[in-house]
């Protein structure tokens, strides 16, 4: 233990960055503070500079005249213009809403928020700056990535199907690819780890198979396997590849695996005799052991699929006794499923007592099988009405707690067991506590739950109560660690695109989806009301935005900012603005200027008439 602690401290010291000198750290701290202050005030300085430039150019650009022209032009618009304007706004916001909804369901995040954070925020100086020692941010990033990597570790599916006899037949029938590129790439890495070693160059057949496992094209791999058999008729890995990918039925796969077993046992005995000669021979023995275990396990799965369940159980038990260090292959999960098919519940309980231990990694198969065994004792007599009237018995409480424990470990499984979501073929790799593991478990164990009367009824009545015990699953857990936040991304890479990935906890809709939906609905309603009731909407618009209000604002703005000679007062305070044809607005300014002159003349004539007809005051 002391040596281990010393090694751990040495590794930690080697991984940490060297400490800088004191004077250097102080100078770097002052520079970091200055840079952070400038970055924080950069956006404000640009905004103030823009306002100052606009104020300085108000006279050359004739901003006040243009503002007056635009105000008069907007007051003279017809309801048809507002119908077109609100209708266009509704269409644009509706398209944005549809795109946001699609992007959120495909990637799990808002497109507008992502663009704002990744592109606009750095431009506005909104980066998260913290004054810290050099290298501390990289250390935190390394720790976060290491934690995410441990949470999202991908495991090989213990009950994975045969590519040629099952996956390819599914593709022939449906035209869909059940395996993703990421999943097949992980399988290729597993094959190179299990079936190759550094001494492959000593045997030509192994050299050919080393290239075959790296091939992406299935026909090329099959062709390479036949070439290896031509060089050596006892090449076990070549028979394995043909059984996995070329055989179209389980019977053909079993026949090829039996040939592989005969060749693999011969090579394994030969390697045992030479294992102590050199480290290369030890590596070769490990490779031959992996090949032999893989062949026997697949033969057991063939026997299980062909109905010879007791034979499959015997092969699995022999494997677990003969090769106890290979527990990472999770052969006990294959054994649990076969024993459940035999309805040997006492043997299932014995296997669970050995592997449902705190020191071993949990899985959905272990947790839900334990819940199934406890549910089996009370499910046939369970009734929600009776339980609510008299309370739960001790056995029922134990069953409900086991269900809550299983649901907390993997909350995606109940929807597949209760057939609330459709099943697909399980992938070759699964993510613990993810949707891929839920599919793999439900695909093989749904029949066992259906066989026990009332088990699914009890599950349906109690599984949602788990979420009341863990209201914040990403921050804290009840019986397990908090639920990892990276399962959705990994499951999307492992599962085919035609499958709707189950997400937990369910994400709330982003703000911009609600905003665009409300904007689309409101503008569409305004457009419809303006089209159907133009008079009423006109009265409403004048009541909300009275022309006198904008007139007073405009008059005060022009009288304050405009130089002499540009504006002159008309009788009774009416404002007449002269716009030349070669102003900033061009032809639009000229037309609006004519319209303003006509309005001013009409207003002046009307006011003179009223002055003539009015009675003198103070008479």
TrEMBL record:
Biological process terms in GO annotation: negative regulation of cell growth
Cellular location(s): Membrane
Extent of Low complexity compositional bias: 8-22, 126-139
One of the Pfam families matching this protein, by short name: ST7
Region described as Disordered: 1-22, 126-148
Protein's membrane topology: Multi-pass membrane protein
InterPro entries noted in UniProt: ST7
UniProt key word tRNA-binding: no
Keywords: Membrane, Transmembrane, Transmembrane helix
First-listed, main subcellular location of the protein, grouped into a coarse class: membrane
GO cellular component: membrane
Claim: Membrane is one of the keywords in the record: yes
Membrane spanning residue stretches: 36-57, 81-104
Family: Belongs to the ST7 family.
Official protein name in the record: Suppressor of tumorigenicity 7 protein-like
């Amino acid at each position: 233990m002391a040596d281990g602690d010393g090694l751990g401290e040495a590794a930690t010291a080697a991984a940490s960055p060297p400490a800088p000198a004191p004077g250097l750290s102080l100078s770097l701290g002052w520079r970091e503070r200055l840079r952070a202050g400038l970055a924080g005030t950069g956006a404000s300085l640009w905004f103030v500079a823009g306002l100052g430039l606009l104020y300085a150019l108000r006279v050359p650009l004739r901003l006040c005249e243009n503002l007056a022209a635009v105000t008069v032009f907007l007051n003279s618009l017809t309801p048809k213009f507002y119908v077109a304007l609100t209708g266009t706004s509704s269409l644009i916001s509706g398209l944005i809403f549809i795109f946001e909804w699609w992007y959120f369901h495909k990637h799990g995040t808002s497109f507008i928020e992502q663009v704002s954070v990744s592109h606009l925020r750095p431009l506005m100086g909104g980066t998260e700056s913290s004054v810290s020692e050099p290298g501390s941010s990289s250390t935190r990033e390394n720790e976060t990535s290491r934690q995410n990597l441990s949470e999202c570790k991908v495991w090989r599916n213990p009950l994975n199907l045969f590519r040629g006899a099952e996956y390819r037949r599914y593709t022939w029938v449906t035209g869909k690819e059940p395996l993703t590129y990421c999943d097949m790439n992980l399988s290729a890495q597993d094959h190179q780890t299990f079936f190759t070693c550094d001494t492959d160059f000593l045997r030509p057949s192994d050299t050919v198979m080393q290239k075959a496992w790296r091939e992406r094209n299935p026909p090329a791999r099959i062709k390479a396997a036949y070439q290896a058999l031509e060089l050596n008729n006892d090449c076990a890995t070549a028979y394995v590849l043909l059984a996995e990918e070329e055989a179209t039925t389980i019977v053909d796969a079993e026949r090829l695996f039996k040939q592989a077993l005969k060749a693999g046992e011969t090579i394994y005995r030969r390697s045992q005799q030479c294992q102590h000669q050199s480290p290369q021979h030890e590596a070769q023995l490990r490779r031959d052991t992996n090949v032999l275990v893989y062949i026997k396990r697949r033969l057991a799965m063939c026997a299980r699929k062909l109905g010879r369940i007791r034979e499959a159980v015997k092969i699995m038990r022999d494997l677990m006794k003969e090769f106890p260090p290979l527990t990472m292959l999770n052969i006990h999960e294959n054994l649990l499923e076969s024993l459940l098919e035999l309805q040997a519940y006492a043997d299932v309980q014995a296997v669970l007592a050995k592997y449902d231990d705190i020191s071993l990694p949990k899985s959905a198969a272990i947790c839900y099988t334990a819940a199934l065994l406890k549910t089996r004792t009370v499910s046939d007599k369970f009734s929600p009405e009776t339980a609510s009237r008299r309370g739960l018995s001790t056995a029922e409480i134990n069953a409900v707690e086991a269900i809550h424990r299983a649901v907390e470990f993997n909350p995606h499984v109940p929807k597949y067991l209760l057939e609330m979501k459709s099943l697909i073929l399980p992938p070759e790799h699964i993510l613990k506590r993810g949707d891929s593991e839920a599919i793999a478990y439900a695909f093989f164990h749904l029949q066992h739950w259906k066989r026990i009367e009332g088990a699914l009824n009890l599950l349906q009545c109690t599984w949602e109560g788990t979420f009341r015990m863990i209201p914040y699953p990403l921050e804290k857990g009840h019986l397990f660690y908090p639920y990892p936040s990276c399962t959705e991304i990994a499951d999307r890479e492992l599962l085919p695109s035609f499958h709707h990935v189950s997400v937990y906890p369910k994400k709330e809709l982003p703000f911009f989806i609600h905003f665009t939906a409300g904007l689309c609905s409101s503008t569409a309603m305004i457009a419809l009301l303006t089209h159907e009731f133009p008079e009423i909407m006109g009265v409403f618009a004048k009541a909300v935005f009275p022309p006198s209000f904008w007139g007073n604002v405009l008059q005060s703005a022009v009288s304050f900012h405009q130089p002499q000679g540009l504006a002159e007062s008309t009788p009774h305070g009416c404002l007449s603005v002269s716009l030349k044809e070669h102003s900033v607005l061009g032809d639009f300014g000229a037309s609006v200027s004519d319209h303003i002159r006509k309005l001013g003349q009409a207003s002046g004539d009307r006011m003179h008439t009223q002055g003539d007809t009015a009675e003198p005051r103070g008479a």
